[in-house]
Amino acid sequence: MKEVVVISGKGGTGKTSLTASFSILGGSDIITADCDVDAADMHLLLEPDFAYSEDFYSGQLAQIDPDQCFGCGNCQRVCRFDAIEQETDYFHVIPLNCEGCGYCSYICPVDAIVMEDNLVGHWYDSTIKTGSRMIHAKLGVGAENSGKLVAKVKEMAKEKARELGKDIVLVDGSPGIGCPVVSSLSGANLVVLVAEPSVSGIHDIKRVIELVNKFRIPSCAIINKADINPKQTEALVGFMQGKGVTHIGNINYNENFTAAMTEGKTIVEFDDRPLAETVRGYWQTILKLI
Fold first, then answer.
1. Cα gap 229→8, rounded to integer Å
2. Is the pLDDT of residue 190 over 70?
3. pTM reported for the whole predicted model
4. Which of 57-61, 134-138, 144-148, 156-160 is the least confident region?
5. Which residues are CB-contacts of 146 (< 8 A; sequence separation ≥ 6)?
6. Closest C-alpha to 136, from 146, 128, 145, 126
7. pLDDT value at position 164?
8. CA 95/CA 250 separation, integer angstroms
């Protein structure tokens, strides 16, 4: 089984649009995993049926039993996160502020505070419009531990690939270099970088390349919107080649990407044959690289 992870340095480069296109081109031969759990949106293009859903718990939250609390205020005094506030004659926890350290529970003289597993999101096993399967997730509002949820999605995607005898797991990773990206890269056989030649895009993709190289994972790159700054595109190609990144090719700015999205389609399903054939060619190159 081979694992292909698509990432970018920043949001808005076209990473998810291209990954969804690759998912369509891979058809029933691949398992797709949406690991961009902080801002999951690939479901808008692949039409998953959300057939199976499971809660995901990570970390703990303090809970105060108002029937046992006699209002001493010890918990509020020791909480460094301002997660406990008083309400009439007892105290309660502000979930978004609680870091789950458990100190309030430790010092409560009447054991009125318990630490409970924290529901931070959900993960799903869906059939998508190609007839293949997609493992995806959604992190709760203000929830943390996205890296652990990414790890869960990848684990279930690989398990589904083994169960169904699929050779490729295609992963849409998060942008940037944070914890969910590191989790996405773990175990990858090939990284596909989607970059853009803007000032912020170049700065951020350079950081991603340094991260990928620390993992010693083979990588390749597609430069999207390449014509918005041809000089910077040329410089970016030179930088990537110096870092051992295979430059697959460029895609010029094209409003049909947006037009396709408004119809709930990937660009390879949309009526733009030249662009669709370009993306198809890049997918074939990726298959050769793995």
1. 18
2. yes
3. 0.89
4. 144-148
5. 37, 38, 139, 174, 179, 180
6. 126
7. 95
8. 46
**129-142 mean pLDDT:** 90
Q: Which fold has domain 2-47+128-289?
A: Rossmann fold (3.40.50)
Beta strands in the chain (DSSP E): 2-8, 30-34, 52-64, 84-87, 90-93, 113-127, 133-139, 168-172, 190-195, 219-224, 246-251
Structure tokens at 1: 């089984």
Segments of the chain assigned to CATH 3.40.50.300: 2-47+128-289
Q: Indicate the pairing of strand 113-127 with strand 90-93.
A: unpaired
At the second CATH level, the architecture of 58-119 is 2-Layer Sandwich (3.30)
pLDDT band for position 124 (50/70/90)? very high
CATH 3.30.70.20 range(s) for the chain read: 58-119
